[in-house]
């Protein structure tokens, strides 16, 4: 789907190449994080995939096309198969939310009927159906980024390229954006995302390609952010970190795509499915029954909340995408020490999987359907 063969990119007037000898293959349906310190070449990589720029040496194939063979005139046609999302949203400020999304389809000549169907559907998906008539300046940062995502996916691209899409957002808002990108990937779109968000990279356990000074120094399935470009989470100021109000367990549970079957963590380390563990639906049904019994019989104690369980692989993933026993404090002595989120980041109230299961569509499931008087403040990134 994306193939880099010994790709080097040297910008004019610079002594050192921004990218050097990159070999990279991304297959259909993958979710790939590109990480690395500032200046390591992440954006250069995405620009080359988008054919905004050409390599100084080497070959790039995207969707079966040799990018060096696409004439400048044909580049806009090639880009129709790619969606792009950037840190700074890049919305048209004089157009409404609806028109921003519709514009993408208008410029590629889609019919009015198609647009009238596709735009509301996509706004619904990102939880902005009720903001179609608003202008970008009337939206929060997270909402603006969701408009940008709607615009990027409205034409159902095969590949979504995201360059630090959460870089301007606070952690809680970033979580919503990550959930959305994860759900879009689960629906079949290949996602390549450059990011500095160590927390999400560590938690999502997807493929990680790490660049350092223009060279791929790591290409790891189910990887973490790594240490080279990371600001240790322990260095976050407490005030800044309070904004997060979340924890690994909450984020893990929240990043489960809608309807994915889940299993309880298996402390004995048995393979998924080997033990008779309840599915998420069974666990919730059991909790519901217990709630009902407690309601009619005061002698019956109210049940403990259902733990957010670990999920099984979805169709596009390696098995067990969220790793093994990270929700469990007990760890094998020989296991490498992982960065943990400190206690002050714990959520004020636990995630309620029952409530999550009762909500309807994707946007509701992801908590994206907020009312006007429910605005959140974007306070800038905490990484
Ligand atoms: N148009 C350009 N002209 C000259 N040098 C450039 C240009 N664009 C990028 N560079 C250089 O190429 C290198 C890689 O930059 P790039 O923007 O790809 O890094 P990055 O990993 O995306 O950084 P960041 O995380 O800060 O966005 C840097 O040294 C940068 O200064």
TrEMBL record:
Keywords: ATP-binding, Cell cycle, Cell division, Cell membrane, Membrane, Nucleotide-binding. It is found in: Cell membrane. GO terms for biological process: cell division. InterPro entries: AAA+_ATPase, ABC_transporter-like_ATP-bd, ABC_transporter-like_CS, ABC_transpr_LolD-like, Cell_div_FtsE, P-loop_NTPase. Residues 2-238 form the ABC transporter domain. Residues 295-383 are annotated as: Disordered. PROSITE patterns: ABC_TRANSPORTER_1 (PS00211), ABC_TRANSPORTER_2 (PS50893). Its main location: membrane. Residues 315-328 have a biased composition (Acidic residues). Coiled coil: none annotated. It is a peripheral membrane protein. Residues 329-346 have a biased composition (Basic and acidic residues). One of its GO terms (molecular function) is ATP binding. Belongs to the ABC transporter superfamily. Part of the ABC transporter FtsEX involved in cellular division. Homodimer. Forms a membrane-associated complex with FtsX. This is Cell division ATP-binding protein FtsE. It comes from Leucobacter rhizosphaerae.
């Amino acid at each position: 789907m994306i193939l880099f063969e010994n790709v080097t990119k040297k910008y004019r007037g610079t002594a050192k190449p921004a990218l050097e000898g990159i070999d990279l293959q991304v297959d259909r349906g993958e979710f790939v994080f590109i990480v690395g310190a500032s200046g390591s070449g992440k954006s250069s990589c995405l620009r080359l995939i988008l054919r905004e720029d050409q390599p100084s040496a080497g070959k790039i194939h995207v969707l079966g096309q040799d990018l060096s063979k696409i004439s400048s005139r044909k580049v806009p046609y090639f880009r129709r198969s790619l969606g792009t999302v950037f840190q700074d949203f890049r919305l048209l400020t004089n157009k409404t939310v609806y028109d921003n999304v519709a514009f993408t389809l208008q410029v590629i000549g889609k019919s009015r009927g198609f647009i009238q169907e596709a735009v509301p559907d996509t706004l619904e998906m990102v939880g902005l159906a009720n903001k179609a008539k608003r202008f970008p300046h009337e939206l929060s940062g997270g909402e603006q980024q969701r408009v940008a995502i709607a615009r990027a996916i409205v034409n159902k691209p095969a590949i979504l390229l995201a360059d630090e899409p959460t870089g301007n957002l606070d952690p809680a808002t970033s979580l919503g954006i990550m959930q959305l990108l994860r759900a879009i990937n689960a629906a079949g779109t290949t996602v390549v995302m450059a990011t500095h968000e160590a927390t999400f990279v560590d938690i999502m356990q997807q493929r990680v390609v790490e660049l350092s000074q223009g060279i791929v120094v790591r290409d790891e399935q189910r990887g973490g952010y790594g240490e080279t470009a990371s600001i240790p989470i322990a260095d976050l100021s407490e005030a800044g970190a309070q904004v997060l109000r979340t924890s690994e367990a909450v984020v893990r549970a929240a990043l489960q795509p809608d309807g994915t079957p889940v299993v309880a963590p298996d402390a004995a380390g048995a393979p998924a499915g080997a033990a008779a563990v309840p599915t998420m639906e069974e666990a919730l049904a059991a909790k519901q029954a217990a709630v009902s019994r407690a309601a009619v019989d005061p002698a019956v104690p109210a049940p403990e909340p259902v733990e957010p369980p670990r999920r099984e692989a979805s169709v596009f993933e390696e098995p067990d995408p969220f790793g093994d026993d990270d929700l469990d404090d007990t760890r094998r002595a020989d296991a490498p020490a992982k960065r943990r989120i400190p206690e002050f980041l714990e959520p004020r109230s636990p995630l309620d999987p029952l409530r999550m299961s009762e909500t309807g569509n994707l946007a509701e499931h992801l908590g994206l359907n907020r009312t006007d008087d429910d605005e959140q403040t974007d306070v800038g990134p905490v990484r």
